[in-house]
Amino acid sequence: MTFRRYHKPSVRKEQERIRRAGGRISKVGNDVLRVESQLAMTRALGDYSLDKHIITAIPDLIQYERDSLAIYVIIASDGIWDVMNNEQVASFVSQRVSNTTLENIISQLFDQCLKEESSDNMTAYIIKLD
To answer: What is the pLDDT of residues 94-114, one digit of tens each?
Structure first.
């Protein structure tokens, strides 16, 4: 199951939220949309360079019924998702989970993303469901 919402300036709902907060979205350089000509995302933790109403840390909260087959929840930043899709990350984790720790899998995932030429910072959590 995929529970993914993009918080990028290309998403219409995020564009509307940014504009209501008084922010601007524009193309910069290689046609990447950016908020206030700076960030290529619309929500962030710990980014104090922009108005907190424009770039907010408030998450989207979504409630789903748990799939009885789900074993893990994987939460990751765009440094991961920009170079690997949901299926690739799920396969990567499932191929390694019986042979190593979750911490090692995350480290290997970061290495793989660097090989895939990720140029963004990376954060990931793998949560084992009981």
So the answer is: 999 999 999 999 999 999 999
Count of alpha carbons within 13 angstroms of residue 120, beta-carbon side: 15
Which pLDDT score, from 0 to 100, does residue 2 have? 67
What local confidence, expressed as pLDDT, does residue 83 receive?
95
The two beta strands, 25-28 and 32-35, are antiparallel
Beta bridge partners of 25: 35
Please, which residues bridge with residue 72 across strands? 128
Q: What is the pTM of this model?
A: 0.74
Count CB atoms within 10 A of the CB of residue 110.
17
Q: Is the dihedral of CA 38, 43, 49, 54 positive or negative?
A: positive
Distance between start and end Cα atoms, the chain = 17
Residue with token string 């989970």: 97
The C-alpha angle with vertex 64 and arms to 63 and 68, in degrees rounded to 5, equals: 145
The predicted model gives 29-52 an average pLDDT of 82
